[in-house]
């Protein structure tokens, strides 16, 4: 007996219902976010790995970085991954800011980001730079100095999250690595440049949260997103004038990354209307592909912003893999430690094959990422939640 027949048997006239049962409701971005889908953990891990892979070519001396899958002419694979990070961070963190008091939001973000970052900064300045100094000079003599280019100076500057990062410590890696030889500069951890910009994006959405509570989420986020777009166009059309007006608050890079970040926040505000398997992800992918073949400006803004809609379906597909991680998030540590590990491998001559370089760097970095997660990141978050 069919379900329709059973339903009809309960009606006074014994007939079947005139209204067929509604089909399953389409899955939206809101469903994925509100369930805290493990697919986002897996997606972040993949993006962090893509940064490692992209950096392999310049750091290992294998040539130019691979191009972005969506904009190979204008963006590197690592640039694509960073844009994905900002878009997904805007989606997840933006919804958090809209639903939490400012104090709780600030503590949560600070404890998730700052402890791991601080330890990574110290790791880059001390053991990593020390190993490089010993390799290049035969001992530690002259390494420790109170000067601005010393390890302590590097740590002090990095811990204030400057947008203009100072990446060098005592000139290490300049003569001993392919990247140092190519650039003539010391880079102990070049990946850290994005963290100060991300912190500033957090500040913006945290302040937007205050407005959201009075003005509404969708209206507030839409206006903020549009204003970021206007400033981005201003930097493109009249960079000197725009820089003069907003320069003390935001440089061109911050405006671009903030626009991508707020694009994620905008998707989060309308998340219950964005179907994961609907027409929007297809249209967003088409926009990203067209922008990626048109100009650098459109690639960095429209193309990267489109990732806020393109990537959630990828997170849905990665959910089974993410479930196997059981809440262990190694993506942040993988991102923080990959560069110094790769610099050391290049210095010690592990540059025969890009594939071997990637595999060895990944294995070592994952160990450090696990140490960061279990020893620094998770304990910090748990201590805050226990209060």
Characteristics of this structure?
mainly alpha; 15 helices; 387 residues; disordered N terminus
Q: Give the overall shape.
A: globular
- Quickly give the structural class: mainly alpha
Mean pLDDT: 92
User: How many H/I helices?
Assistant: 15
- Low-pLDDT stretches are 1-21
Question: Ends: how far apart?
Answer: 56 Å
**SSE string, helices as H and strands as E:** HHHHHHHHHHHHHHH
SS elements, strand count? 0
User: Strand percentage, roughly?
Assistant: under 5%
Number of spatially distinct domains: 1
Report on the biggest sheet: none
User: Could you tell me the radius of gyration in angstroms?
Assistant: 24 Å
- Describe the oligomeric state of these chains in a short phrase: single chain
Helical content class: 55-70%
Please give a structural write-up:
- It is a single chain.
- The protein has 387 residues and is an all-alpha fold.
- The protein has one domain.
- Helix content is 70%, strand content 0%.
- It has 15 helices and no strands.
- Helix 5 runs antiparallel to helix 8.
- The protein starts with a helix and ends with a helix.
- The N terminus is likely disordered.
Summarize this entry quickly.
The protein is mainly alpha-helical and 387 residues long. The chain has helices spanning 3-9, 29-34, 39-60, 77-99, 102-137, 151-158, 178-183, 194-215, 217-237, 239-246, 252-269, 279-291, 296-325, 331-347, 354-385. It has one domain (29-385).
